[in-house]
What we know:
Blueprint: E1 9-15, E2 20-24, E3 27-31, E4 44-51, E5 57-66, E6 71-79, E7 82-87, E8 96-98, H1 104-108, E9 115-122, E10 130-139, H2 146-154, H3 163-170, H4 176-180, E11 186-187, E12 193-197, E13 206-212, E14 218-225, H5 236-244, E15 248-249, E16 254-255, H6 260-266, E17 274-284, E18 290-307, H7 308-319, H8 332-346, H9 352-373, E19 382-387, E20 393-399, H10 403-426, E21 432-434, H11 440-452, H12 458-465, H13 469-479, H14 485-495, E22 500-502, H15 526-543, H16 546-556, H17 564-598, E23 605-614, E24 617-622, E25 628-632, E26 641-644, E27 649-652, E28 658-660, E29 664-673, E30 678-683
Parallel strand pairs: 3-5, 8-10, 11-18, 12-18
Antiparallel strand pairs: 1-2, 1-4, 2-3, 4-5, 6-7, 6-9, 7-8, 9-10, 13-14, 14-17, 15-16, 17-18, 19-20, 21-22, 23-24, 23-29, 24-25, 26-27, 27-28, 29-30
Helix pairs in contact: 2-17, 3-5, 7-8, 7-9, 9-10, 10-15, 11-12, 11-14, 12-13, 13-14, 15-16
Amino acid sequence: MRSKRASGLVGVVRVSEHAGFVETAEGAYRLTGRGLRDAMPGDRVYASVGRGPKGERRAVVEHVIERATSTVVGTYDVASPLGIVRPLDTRIKHDFFVLPTDDSPACLGVEPGDIVSARIEVYPNRVESGIVTLERRIGDATAPDLGIACVMARYDLSDGYPASPAEEARGLALDVDGALADPLRRDIRDRFVITIDPVDARDFDDAISLEPRDDGGCCLGVHIADVSHYVAWESGIDLEARRRSTSVYLADRVLPMLPERLCNDLCSLVPDEDRLAFSVDIELDARGRVRSYECYPSVIRSRVRLDYGAADLLLRDASNPVDGDAEPAVDEVVCAHAAAAVEAAARFGVDLPVFLGRAAGVAEARRLLRRKRGSIDFETVEVHALLDEAGLPVRIVNRARTCATSLVEEAMLLANECVAERLADEGAVAAFRVHEPPLEDNLVAAARVLVEIGALDGEQALALESADPHAIAAALDAVRSTPCEALANALLLRAMQRALYKPHNEGHYALGAPAYCHFTSPIRRYPDLLVHRALKLSLAREHLGRKAAAERRRLLTGTGAQALDAIAPQLCRHASERERLADAAAHATQKIKVAQYYGDRIGQRASGTISWMDQTGIYVRLDDTGAEGLVRLRGLGGEWWEFDERSLTLTGSSTGTVITLGRRVAVEVARVNVLRGRLDLMLVGLPSASE
């Protein structure tokens, strides 16, 4: 039973494997059990919001305002005289029919069992079924890369790059002398600059430099590829980059935002090559506090290309020197990369381990300062499939924060804050990264579960519910290095609102930053490119005459009805949506590769932790790979299980056994569905009620 409904709200439907929500300007509201009705993921809807039987706010979709999905990818079957398309996306709860008069299956040579992409002709509702017509046969179920092709079709992604902007990019060239004719650009090629990226990175769009000061402070330089020098407002490249808005990193390929000529050549800060950059020099005192900062276009030359593994090795050796035989075993390739980087730095008179040690010290000082002001650091682990040359998964690894990644992350965060502060102080229109405080209901629900599993006490939970970021950080500290750490991070991260792009600054809650933007990756994020343009325009207005500044505005942000000032809200909304889409597609392809990996391991046993549960069953995160699989309710034994949504527990009706989040379990790999990215597990021995 639902209580009296509140007034309706307009929002966007979001559906995960665990729950459905309607995201509105007032916050996100969880859908009731049947509240989705005929809506589909991404649809813009009108929803009523009320209180559930236990006081929680719940939403029900009343009607769809605007459809987000025009095609579905699914398995084709026949139930004569109709054809049936069963969506592979389990968030879509309806099957779709192909009418007997539709000859698209015959024209495309589609057979039952084939995977197809279909255009929706009639959306399903309460009185009629959905109708589709087939547009493309993707392949049969045995195609090796079928799963990735399905994800790309589902999210309307495609390989390759349009011919016109790609040709436009091939006509671009590096002209250092011409670039230095700009009075705003500085030549800093004499500075020691390095890049630190993943070992498999193809483009290098950020670099750092560090110059110690006599008083214990330093000048931290953050140098970002100057994409805006090559990409003019409303050029062919710009319009295509705007449409894509972000690079998409699938499990087996990258779909770049920019043509290869830019992202892997002209704008890639490769070692020993002159490159145009946008630099931010930040003067810090001995405690990491910002004294001053300066932004300017530059010409740099990276001296060393370092990967995270090699950087971590050098940082470890610098902080914990060991003797010969006592040295721990390290991958030979990592050692070779580290040795080559040390040798390259030495040619410029730089002791690389010392350089990295100083940079790590700055990063730690900055992290402590962020914590004091209320920044929240979630410890997340990314499950990543390593593939062989044929695209088959050979290993599942977890990518977590390390000293080297933190070193780079803190430098980039600081540069982003400095740029955002300057633009916000001027009231400039750009693409600010805005993160609003979490809703009280979301934090209350998370706190309740954390108390239930013993991760927090009542006092800690009460502080958590206040949405004070210091309390959230303290809660994460309280569970650090405990069995509840991963679960607490996941629950509290779920309680957060999603950060968005907006044309004006509204602050960033999770970072505790009064102003924040993305400045450091214009190769792969269109909002960063907008920020670069806004910052260049700001510098032109400050240092050049009115006429020169007006001309730069025309080239950088346009004029009239299609200028940045006029269309920034639309660009920010589009960027936020495309970011969400790219993240979902990347996650989906990783799940496909994880399922593919376990396809050869049916019957294998493993230990894990219950990471989530719902009416479907319990989700278990495996210790050895971090992959998550589902133990369905019917696999929990021959009794009825009652799911308590408030405490996130399952209770057996016959035995009284209570299954809670964070519980350690033993499981067996039961089956996989590669196309859906599903890993099904079977519980090996059910925990007793006394455990």
